[in-house]
Amino acid sequence: MTIEPLPDDLARETAAYRQALGAFATGVCVVTADSAAGPLGITVNSFASVSLNPRLVLWCLDERSERWPVFADADTFAIHVLPSGDEDLARRFARGEAILDDHEFEREGGGPPRLPEALARFECRTHARLPMGDHVIIIGQVERFMSAPGEGLTFFRGKFSKAAEPAVGKGEK
Predict the structure, then answer these.
(1) Across the strands, what pairs with 82?
(2) Residue 3 half-sphere exposure, CB side, CA atoms within 13 Å?
(3) Looking at the predicted structure, is the pLDDT value of residue 11 above 90?
């Protein structure tokens, strides 16, 4: 596939649209899957819950990503909601070295590679792939999950920040 540069007016409009989208604060996740070269990661902020029963989640993959072939075809993957201290990891998997070294991941049985620390982890089997615009929506059926307390890494107006752990109010447990 060849992607030609946008005309100047469309490039400006696209940049303005992207800036408007940046007004919505999101969590930051790293998705991992197996590739022929080894376990691979990619940073996303398009994670969302779809259904509680069955347990379905989604994330979106840009068709221009050099990691498209692996993630678009992966039968299993893990989504990791990052804690606030993992900004370097988020940056690395956004554009940097995407292959995980042996000491950077663990695996349970035949499941997908998983990062050892996350606020939440969702190990999924691909349920559906929906081409949509210049992305594919990947819907995963959650087979295993976990969560832990802590501050979350967020992305807002093009910058990383954090979401604080909410204080427990009176009468809450």
Answers:
(1) none
(2) 7
(3) no
Cα angle 89-78-97, degrees, rounded to a multiple of 5: 35
3-state secondary structure the chain: CCCCCCCHHHHHHHHHHHHHHCCCCEECEEEEEEECCEEEEEEECCCEEEECCCCEEEEEEECCCCCHHHHHHCCEEEEEECECCCHHHHHHHHHCCCECCHHHCECCCCCCCECCCCCEEEEEEEEEEEEECCEEEEEEEEEEEEECCCCEEEEECCEEEEECCCCCCCCCC
Placement of tokens 């992207």 in the chain: 18
Name the amino acid, one letter, at 21. L
Q: What is the rounded average pLDDT for all residues in the chain?
A: 90
pTM of the model: 0.87
Q: What token pair was written down for 41?
A: 């990661």
**The two three-digit tokens of residue 151, written as one number:** 């501050």
Which positions ≥6 away from 118 have C-beta within 8 Å?
Answer: 80, 81, 82, 83, 146, 148
Cis, peptide link before residue 54, omega less than 30° from 0: yes
Q: What domains, with CATH codes, occur in the chain?
A: 26-101+112-162 (2.30.110.10)
